[in-house]
Amino acid sequence: MQVLNHPTLFRMILAGANEIISREKELNAINVFPVPDGDTGSNLAHLMRMLVRETKWSDTSSEMLESMKRACLRGSRGNSGMIFSQFILSMCSYMTARPELKIAQFIEMCEQSVAMSRRSVHEPQEGTVLSVMDDWVNVLQTAFAPSEGLADMLHRSYAEACISLENTKHQLEVLRKHNVVDAGARGFIHFLQGFIASLDDTFPIAEQIFDEQEPFASTDDIVHNPSHDLSDSLAYRYCTEFMFDIKTSLEEVKGHIATLGNSMVAVGDGIQGKIHIHTNVPARVAEVIQNNGWIVYQKVEDMKRQKDMIYNRQASIALVIDSACDMPETWLDDYQIHRIPLHLQLGRSTYLDKVTLQLDTFYDKLEWMTEQPTTSQPAQETITLLYEQLLTHYDHIISIHLSKPLSGTYDACRQAAERIDSDRIHVVDSRTLSGAYGLIVHETAEAVKAGKPIEEVLDLLASSISRSEILVSVPTLKHMIRGGRVSPLQGKIARWLDMKPIVSVNQEGQSILYGKTFYKQSNLGKMLKMISLIHRRNPIQRYVILHAGAEADSARYVEEMVRMTGQNPLYITGVAPVIGLHAGKGAVSVAMMLSGKNTRRNT
Question: Could you give the count of Cα atoms lying within 13 Å of 230 in the half-sphere of its Cβ?
Answer without folding.
Answer: 27
